[in-house]
Specification:
It is an enzyme of class 3 (hydrolase). The chain has 356 residues and is an alpha+beta fold. The chain contains 11 helices and 16 strands.
Length: 356
Amino acid sequence: VFKIKAVQLAGKLLPAFNTPTGIPWAMVNLKSGVGRNWGWASAGSSILAEFGTLHMEFVHLSYLTGDPVYYNKVMHIRKLLQKMDRPNGLYPNYLNPRTGRWGQHHTSVGGLGDSFYEYLLKAWLMSDKMDTEARKMYDDAIEAIEKHLIRKSNGGLTFIGEWKNGHLERKMGHLTCFAGGMFALGADGSRDDKAGHYLQLGAEIAHTCHESYDRTTLKLGPEAFKFDGGVEAVAVRQNEKYYILRPEVIETYWYMWRFTHDPKYRQWGWEAAQAIDKYCRVSGGFSGVKDVYSSSPTYDDVQQSFFLAETLKYLYLLFSNDDLLPLDNWVFNTEAHPLPVLHLANTTLSGNPAYR
């Protein structure tokens, strides 16, 4: 029944790919098949994290159904991106699906960009490490990220900035905190025997993100935090002080726990769990809060879908044994839904999907 539903839904999504480049629209009318993009997204562009975060699901659907159409759509996106010039080796967040040109040169490992990088690594893992093209794209991308976006603050905190209008913004989003876990997950198999380096980088990002929680009144992390002048790992603008039950910091704690078993990650996760229970629990479930620096916070009255799918799941896994969803057999999509590693030759190698 779920396979039938998945095929029906994918069929409704396929018209979104009917663009001059094959880069899909951000939105598609499920009845008419007409697609369009967000008005605010750089002159009609599609968004990197949106069109780059289809790979795992579409490849798996081709595997389940034996129909290569889904696989071909996402491989076409990859081939197109490989051919394009990348400023500083980085992928901008906006790509115009009509012209095939980048929009404004804004690059982020947080919102708008985040899961694109995650899916390069996870495509390789999900293919039982056969999809070496994805791994190469991932390695190239994180080398560029480390060179151009990762910096150390005056206080010694490692952070990932955002490239905007030709300069580095010394600000990190809560969403970017997932990258600590990504670096740890990608450490094994990294170039030039740098596994130790990437595990250390993951630990430094985890530490920075924990500081963003620890420096608030509620011990919950803000949406974005700065590294400017005397201000470090703290939100400055009112519209960045909210916490909407996001999972990314806890996700990184979990990966770091799996790879190091350092008890501090469980301690940090428990701090977050207690803070969520104390400040976010309401009669009907859990709510986001508008200001993590206020001792009497107001609720936003929304329980986000990712709270159950990710935040609580990663907390549960953090306190579970490693044999629950072992990382050798399962890869989590960006919403923390586990997909199996397929131990098949060439499952996701270009042009040669092995079908059941």
